[in-house]
What we know:
This protein is an alpha/beta fold. The protein contains 2 helices and 7 strands; from the N terminus they run H-E-E-E-E-E-E-E-H.
Amino acid sequence: MNRQSKRKMIKKSMHIIFLLLLITSCNRIDNKIYLSTDKVDNISLKSKVLHKGVEIGRVNNIKIHNQEVLIELDSNVKIPLGSKFLTSLSSIGIDSNNISVFFSDNKNFITDKDTIKTSLKMLSIDIENISNLKDLLDKMNIN
Length: 143
């Protein structure tokens, strides 16, 4: 292999590596989102952020800011504006709850370092009114 062929091969290899790096970096989303709320209902640094039961992030920090609780979330997916954030029971025990996210149909997304004002209510179902579950899910756009 002559010198010019080696240069062409190195140049092609560099282009392929560059394209692979570009493609993998475009697919990775690493957003920090802040939830501003009045209470945390047993949310901790162990808490997961879930959508349809799938982990999409974690609680990274919790602090008091301007008389409100500020929860910093790391999320690896785009979350639509207008999505609902609720506290949900952890399946691993009673030491910490999770945050469940119910996506809205909005085509615009929460961006890195956005602060979302929420009441972070506990997701619960009244067993006696389970017949109304479909109505509840329809109202929350969960099918």
